[in-house]
Amino acid sequence: MEQLQTNFFKHLSQKLAANRKMSDELVELLGISKGEAYKKINTKSLLTIPQIKLLCDKFQVSFTIEGKENRSSANINFTPFHTGKIEVKDYIRSLEKFLSNIAASNNGKLSCATDDVPIFHLFQYPELTAFKLHFWQMRIIDQAPFKFNVNDWSPSILQPAARLHQLYQTIPSVEVWTKTSLLNTLDQIKYAAETKIITDKKVGRLICNQLRSALAEIEMYAVNRNKIAKGDASFDWYFYDIIGTITYLAEMGEELSTFIRFNTFNTIQEENGPLCKEVKHWLENLIKDATGFSGQGSVQRNKYLAAAYDQCDEMAELF
Predict the structure, then answer these.
(1) Which of 1, 4, 178, 276 shows a CA-CA span of 20 to 30 A to 209?
(2) pLDDT above 70 as % of the chain
(3) Measured distance CA(242)–CA(179) in Å, rounded
(4) pLDDT digits (tens, 9 = 90+) for 268-302
């Protein structure tokens, strides 16, 4: 146990500010004397479980210091939407903070690998946004309504979502998509039509048309390799056969932040840890093998989008 505590403090020392001493941190955080702090550091006195937790939370580390060879651990955050204590407006607010941090940083960039249209592209369309959020809510929150009614979604949610789209347009990004036939939004619209989640046929057709418009705007980004005409929000778009995840990586100078969406709203999130480095390495290798869709005259992009547009039109005919 003493060796484990020694290793723990070595790990914490890497997180210390240049002008701080570990003994001072222990005195302030744990409410102990300086003499007791030195005993902890020298392992003459063992840390208690509550003290370990306080230190892990303070320094954003895991106490699992020693593990099997060639394995690593990450200190992650989890968004538990299933509890119902976190609302959709909280989700939108968290996304706004996430994008604002990227936009405000020097050389900020957002990369993603996804089997769905990245949600930021959809947020400019109120009916499409409302449907997407309704579908997610129905899947994760107990006693959420089954039938979709766009009037249930207030401007207090849809307007901030629209501002998120505008913010996303200012951020350089790299997106790796998979086959159009596997795009989740298309499948969700089809399911909603077949199960009568959407009963207003006019709204159903409008949602399909809005998805089509979102794809057309993304096509324009790809042609220009930029989201804004004569701007500096570069857009690099790629295709890869199978991805099987929705993973984002934000790069803000030397800072990294990643979140992996695994269940509608729910995400696993980490900042500046081994998971971020692993995701960055994975994305870089994925892009090496991917087909580029950005720039003029991409035959592959045109075929991909033609199939996607056809699917949007087919979905509209279901209503």
Answers:
(1) 178
(2) 89
(3) 7
(4) 888 888 888 889 999 999 999 999 999 877 899 99
H or E, element range at 206: helix 201-224
Which contacts qualify for 283-288: CB closer than 8 Å, 24 or more apart? 283/111, 283/113, 283/174, 283/176, 283/247, 283/249, 286/113, 286/176, 286/238, 286/240, 286/243, 287/174, 287/176, 287/238
Token duo for residue 206: 């409008």
CA atoms of 220 and 298, how far apart (whole Å): 12
| Distance, CA of 153 to CA of 139 (rounded, Å) | 17
Beta bridge partners of 250: 110, 257
Encode burial over 104-133: b for 16+ CB neighbours within 10 A, e otherwise: ebeebbbbbbbbbbbbbbbbbbbbbbbbbb
CB-based contact 183:87 (threshold 8 Å):
no
Query: Nearest Cα to 183, choosing from 162, 157, 212?
Result: 212
Contact at 8 Å (CB) between 264 and 81? yes
- Written as six digits, the tokens of 180 are 């159009």
Q: Are 279 and 258 in contact (CB under 8 A)?
A: yes
Angle between helices 184-194 and 299-316 (to 10 degrees): 10
Which tokens is 196 given? 């009568």
The tens digit of pLDDT for each residue in 118-140 reads: 999 999 999 999 999 998 887 77
Distance of CA 187 to the CA centre of its chain: 21
Domain boundaries defined on the chain: 2-59, 77-316
The CA-based diameter of the chain, rounded to the nearest angstrom, is 76
- Beta-strand relationship, 173-177 and 235-239: parallel
Q: What pTM does this model have?
A: 0.74
Residues 6+ apart with CB under 8 A from 190: 315, 318
